[in-house]
Amino acid sequence: SSGINAEYGGVGALLRRCGAYFIRRSFGKDKLYWALFTEYTQTHIINGDAPVEFFIEGTRSRTGKSLQPKFGMLTIALEPFFDARVSDVAICPITLSYEKTVEENLHVRELMGIPKPKESTTGLIKARAILDNNYGRIHVKAGKILSVYDMAVGKVDRKVRALVPRAVIPSVHPHERSFVNELAYRVLIEQQANAVVFPCSALAAVLLSHIRNKSWSLDICKAESELMWACDLLIKLGCKLMWDKQQSNIDHVIKMLSPVVSSEGGRVVVHKTPPTADHLSSSVFKQCNSLISLGRRRNEFMHIVIHVAMLAKILFHPKSSDRTLEQYTRLRDILQYEFIFMPDSCQSDFNRSIQKLITLKLVSFTDNVYKFIDLEVKNFLVSLIDPFLVTYMDSWQFCISYMPRTLQHSQCLKSLCTRIQTYVSVLYCEPYLYGESINLNVIENSILVLAKLSLVSINKAKSQVYCVDPFSFSTMIREFALTIRPITAKL
Questions:
Q1: Per-residue pLDDT, 488
Q2: Among candidates 148, 234, 167, which has minimal Cα distance to 196?
Q3: For the chain, first and last CA: distance in Å?
Q4: Nearest CA to 199 among 151, 247, 265?
Q5: Which residues, 6 or more positions from 169, have their beta carbon under 8 angstroms from its beta carbon?
Q6: What does pTM read for this prediction?
Q7: Where does 276-369 have alpha helices with state H?
Q8: How does pLDDT run across 36-64, given as a tens digit for each residue?
Q9: Where are the beta strands (DSSP E) in 332-388?
Q10: Does 171 score more than 80 pLDDT?
Q11: Average pLDDT over residues 165-170
Q12: In this prediction, what percent of the chain has a pLDDT beyond 90?
């Protein structure tokens, strides 16, 4: 299945002949379209003539991270199993890892609020020059086949549908919906486990840490040394890194970060390449394009290190085991839209992550107190998560002061995010501005989590946003500030 935006000129006809069928971005209240699309898709599932391929996230990730799963297509695919029209459905998670994506610069511009150009056949022909560029390697991994029949044992009761006429019961029963949600996250976690990380992502993280120290260039020997250190650390933490110390060439790694990064005069240089936008100052755009681009590359391994990075932040100072778990749970709830967390697995994820740090002798546990031992590793891990925490804090401080507090004065979510972006761009100056601070995706996630915590109200069309509980909102901001205090003090 493919988005309907890909159906233009001769491209649409070509994709149809390859077996693709197109989906509207939103079905809305068009029940006829919903019924026809459901029947068409389920006919493929029941007949089994060819596998049905779709993207569980529903759209492209512009941030380098996995997006939250969409449940509609998966629900449609599983309904024949719930109705016992098929005995089983086999799901194969497929992971695509790119060393460098063709649309990288386009995605960065979109994250800053610059509209995406509309796809067209003419545009496709003009873009053929990109085939002359080197985009590195692509790694494709087909994961373990998941049997829906095996996974549904004890979770889905198919007799519910068999004993009641289909017209009487809802299209999806609550316990079936819960199973679909769990399966969607299981697929995403499996995809992330099979993802391959390339050295250029590690170099991006290294360069970002130096930019925070006011250095936009780095001696190439030092860069190679720090790259090797970062790659070794990522491998220890569980990353599947395509890295060979004997054969790897830092010149190739730098090339995979071009045009943002280049090698000049024995130094690795990060360039400031400002695009054009009316709602932000030119001084901000002078650096933000590079910051967001490097942040996007760093995000490609964040799914592996996010748990230990949260613990490194929490253990900036030693804490008791109960306090550590409490703050870990809070951070996990706050970042639930940024990263993929398996539902109802907080305790197991915490135990696994803290045990990994103890095994690697990065954390000690004495007298019921956790203490981070390796200062260098701690600072590196904290630098990975700080940009998100600072952006959330800035966004919420704006919201508590300026967000509408009644339905009558509510505003569009997109408009609110743009106002926050402008506010943050004025608030900070180089080098204290993170790329995430003006990344509209991160800003929007910071508002969506407020709705999840019942502090703001957002309607389905995202056209009405207002604060419903200012007192609880203020309390949460104060508690969150205590968690991230080491960086708020520095700023």
A1: 39
A2: 234
A3: 47
A4: 247
A5: 160, 161
A6: 0.89
A7: 282-298, 302-314, 321-334, 346-359
A8: 888 888 998 999 878 888 889 888 888 99
A9: 363-366, 369-372
A10: no
A11: 65
A12: 46
**CB–CB of 216/270 below 8 Å?**
yes
Q: Which two tokens stand for residue 58?
A: 């529903």
Sign of CA dihedral 166, 167, 173, 179: positive
User: pLDDT at position 431, please?
Assistant: 52
Asked if the bond preceding 259 is cis, omega within 30° of 0, the reply is yes
Of 100, 97, 109, 67, nearest to 290 by C-alpha is: 109
- Range with top average pLDDT, 153-162, 165-174, 384-393, 423-432: 384-393
Give CA torsion, residues 410, 415, 418, 419, to 10 deg.
-40
Closest by CA to 443, choosing from 351, 337, 360, 290, is 337
- Most trustworthy range by pLDDT among 38-52, 96-110, 309-323: 309-323
Beta bridge partners of 372: 363
Residue 93 has pLDDT above 60, yes or no: yes
Nearest CA to 181 among 75, 80, 77, 84? 75
Rounded Cα gap, residues 263 and 457, in angstroms: 49
* Nearest by Cα to 136 from 223, 248, 11: 248
Alpha helices in 113-173 (DSSP H): 121-126, 148-151, 159-163
Of 241, 237, 240, the C-alpha closest to 203 is 241
- CB-CB contact of 200 with 188 (8 Å): no
Residue 220 to residue 223: CA distance in whole angstroms: 5
**Residue 444 φ then ψ, to 5°:** -65, -40
pLDDT for the residue numbered 188: 94
Three-class secondary structure of residue 491 per DSSP: coil
Higher pLDDT, 192 or 490: 192
Edge to edge, what strands does the sheet with 267-270 contain?
Answer: 217-219, 267-270, 261-264
Place of tokens 């056949």: 121
| Cβ neighbour number for residue 411 with a 10 Å cutoff | 15
Task: Give the whole-angstrom CA distance, residue 304 versus residue 250.
Answer: 23
Distance between CA atoms of residues 172 and 31, nearest Å: 16
